[in-house]
Amino acid sequence: MNLRERKAAKKREDILRSASLVISRQGYHNATMEDIAAELLMTKGALYYYFKNKEELLYRCHDLILTEAKEKMEGIVRMDVSCEEKMRMALRHHIEVAIREKEVFNLIVKPETTFSQDNIPEIIKKRDEYAGLFDRIIDEGVESGEFEVPEKKMARMIILGATNWIQVWYSPEGKYSPEDVEEIYAGQLLKMLRKIS
Amino acid sequence: MNLRERKAAKKREDILRSASLVISRQGYHNATMEDIAAELLMTKGALYYYFKNKEELLYRCHDLILTEAKEKMEGIVRMDVSCEEKMRMALRHHIEVAIREKEVFNLIVKPETTFSQDNIPEIIKKRDEYAGLFDRIIDEGVESGEFEVPEKKMARMIILGATNWIQVWYSPEGKYSPEDVEEIYAGQLLKMLRKIS
Amino acid sequence: MNLRERKAAKKREDILRSASLVISRQGYHNATMEDIAAELLMTKGALYYYFKNKEELLYRCHDLILTEAKEKMEGIVRMDVSCEEKMRMALRHHIEVAIREKEVFNLIVKPETTFSQDNIPEIIKKRDEYAGLFDRIIDEGVESGEFEVPEKKMARMIILGATNWIQVWYSPEGKYSPEDVEEIYAGQLLKMLRKIS
Amino acid sequence: MNLRERKAAKKREDILRSASLVISRQGYHNATMEDIAAELLMTKGALYYYFKNKEELLYRCHDLILTEAKEKMEGIVRMDVSCEEKMRMALRHHIEVAIREKEVFNLIVKPETTFSQDNIPEIIKKRDEYAGLFDRIIDEGVESGEFEVPEKKMARMIILGATNWIQVWYSPEGKYSPEDVEEIYAGQLLKMLRKIS
DNA sequence: AATGAATGAGAGTTCATTCAT
DNA sequence: CATGAATGAACTCTCATTCAT
């Protein structure tokens, strides 16, 4: 990848970051291409040089975040620690991303309102892969006897729901630091998973 | 309230139900005034006789649902049963509404993307009152020694997050009945709240 | 059809006439919805109340003219006169429309550049039906021994090409009246068709 | 003309050929600078090195074709054969170009929709010179007694209209070869011109 | 001589909102 | 009360054109 290509790739990423930001602030439907461009001091026309349309831009945007989150999560799953510890780290990571990305997270969550039929299957696939990493930790924990749950899928849904929700109520100006939230959530959710002997 | 007024009030409610339906189906931003009117075989112009604008209509819509949900929830809180039982009923009720109303629930949840500054405070107030009913059950439970939580507010947020999330993944065509979901969620979340002796 | 419907129908037709005019003046691709609306002192938004999009509007526009022309032409074909006389009348009629409608005629002629796949078959069908009326006159003339041509389809194409072309060069300010053109064209083209004994 | 200039001249002509092709395929308004450049594996920016803008490019494009056609036509007019033979050859040549160049021919035909005031007079002049060559053949034929027409200009217009029209309906996949068309058209149109003794 | 990148004007389209009837 | 009709602002997207490199 030569200089020019690297520059272009960087620009594309800049645009995605800008889009993330604007969407986080205003929501998808209230974020215009103009807004996204303005954030980078570009004109909206330029966006179309890099992305074929708004949906494509948004799709790449969500893909970037989800891919990053997934990679990190895969690292956690592979670690050689107890399942409880893994889940704690996974929760910390997930909460951290949820707080940071807010609205973009919503795109991941409800693709139907935003994306056309073409992109939805891929989005759901990626999303499920990510969620599947939680399943793996739960599975392992159940096998090793650390966890005990009536329905694995529901347990995972409770965990994701609870943590995704954070972006709704969390405010940096509030009384909790992100770390506080991470600790307390992890504590509670692990209590829910733990086998009671 | 004379006949004319009663008729008008009925019509207003019809419109709100229709709006709920359309929004649940298509999401707020994809629900046009035309769509809402069409559902009732009216023309969109007529909606403006009953509601000053789209936001007002949406506001009333969310208000209706939230008020109903709250009233029922208050009944539960006042019942003379154990806190665990109360919480179980509260969860059942909340989940049932979440499944039924889907998108409208989202309005309640993220007013900033939809409503203007004028309506937000009131919405948040109502929403907090509703959430406060969960707090009361938790409080009682902690006092009576049935529950034990590190942070009451967080416990409530986990509960609401987990349950609100259901509307994202739940499908009537799936393998779970609403009752299944209610039971399993209640079981898991109560496990999280329960004092471990 | 009540008053309101009649009014609406009239408006639709007004719009079509206006569109014809603007297209005749500027060509299809240079005629904006704004232009078409301005001609009628409307705003472009209003056009979308009557027609779903530009293509639909243009399609109806061409359909109107073609249908009218075809109806009149059918009357001519059914008349009880010699084939030569029929052809003379058909030519007069066709030339008159070609001069009057100019550009709209072009739409009929080259639908591929303008219309999407959905509308093209119907357009071609209508156009062929119209052209078929010329074929019928030629057929009759050949059978009756009045005409003699090496290839009927080509004869028809020559006739249509020659007459459609008029709108390219004809100007009301020039030295020929429409009637002059009609006479001379008819004379020449009939000479081309006539059986030489 | 040194090497550099020759290279540039060659490139200019390449561009014109490419533009002809793209316009023939897509029509003028649907042919973007990008399309034209892509055909030559260039970027659109480069086109502006050779031509000042799209109109200039199109103008040169049409000029190229018309000039070539005219030169060949002049050769035909100067030949020492009967007028009927001359006209037959002229028709063959014209039809052949019309079939080959399709859309570009349209540019020649209706400059008003495409070109700005600056270029139109020149275009019309060239076009009239070309058409004038047909006039000369007709004139000669009338003088020599081979042809007989009521109005020379109209006769020419019929001929050009009929033949230009071919590009509208002709398809290489159809049942007629270009040569078929040339023969039948020439036969019919000459019958129209011929003096009937 | 050519490219990649950016601009900006304008097109078609949508929709909340208004209002005479 | 309700409707049909119209408005106008906003939005997405396109493309001829420019320009630094």
TrEMBL record, chains A, B, C, D:
Keywords: DNA-binding
Keyword Ribosomal protein: no
DNA-binding region(s), residue ranges: 32-51
Pfam families: TetR_C_24 (PF17932), TetR_N (PF00440)
GO molecular function: DNA binding
Record-linked InterPro entries: Homeodomain-like_sf, HTH-type_Tx_Regulator, HTH_TetR, KstR2_TetR_C, Tet_transcr_reg_TetR-rel_C_sf
Gene3D superfamilies cross-referenced by the UniProt entry: Homeodomain-like, Tetracycline Repressor, domain 2
Superkingdom per UniProt: Bacteria
PROSITE patterns, per the entry: HTH_TETR_2 (PS50977)
HTH tetR-type domain ranges (all copies): 9-69
Family annotation (PANTHER family): ACREF/ENVCD OPERON REPRESSOR-RELATED, ACREF_ENVCD OPERON REPRESSOR-RELATED
Protein name as annotated: TetR/AcrR family transcriptional regulator
Species whose genome carries this gene: Planococcus maitriensis
